[in-house]
Design a protein that fits this description.
Largest sheet: none
Shape: elongated
Number of domains: 2
Order of helices and strands: HHHHHH
Length: 153
């Protein structure tokens, strides 16, 4: 007669949502319009705020213990990867800066600070940070303060 193992109480496994949720179509559309300069930074933020509010409500209604914002505001998931030709990236960023894109000005300032694909220029980086801060990018204001206090290295 075959031997049957005694029943063992199953172990409870804990699971949390970590990372991204699928973006709603209206947020994808808003991102594309923002990249093309057809949507302002404030309008883009409003679309992201709506998506985060809906994502939180969905997770709460599902009874999850840990809630994520869905990473809806995140644009770059692999900070070490990107355009291989930084000079090409700079050209694309300059186009977006011309359309009043604060994030593009912030990213472009980093290229100028490090001389990555463009001539190293602390003055150009400073001007871009000022423009980004005036357009409402809070991290630009902090980077500008850091640049002023620490100098350009």
């Amino acid at each position: 007669m075959p031997r049957i193992a005694p029943k063992v109480a199953p172990k409870v496994a804990r699971a949390d949502v970590v990372g991204s949720l699928l973006r709603p179509q209206y947020l994808l559309d808003a991102r594309n319009a923002w990249r093309e300069g057809r949507l302002s930074e404030a309008e883009m933020q409003k679309a992201a705020d709506r998506a985060v509010t809906e994502a939180v409500a969905l997770q709460e209604s599902a009874g999850l213990d840990a809630i994520t914002d869905g990473e809806y505001r995140r644009f770059n998931f692999m900070a070490t990867m990107g355009v291989r030709d930084s000079s090409e990236a700079a050209k694309l960023l300059w186009k977006a800066v011309g359309k009043q894109n604060a994030t593009a000005a912030l990213l472009l300032s980093g290229l100028y600070l490090h001389g990555d694909g463009v001539p190293r220029s602390c003055d150009q980086a400073r001007l871009l940070l000022v423009a980004a801060a005036r357009r409402g990018a809070p991290q630009a204001a902090q980077q500008l303060r850091d640049l002023e206090s620490q100098g350009c290295r």
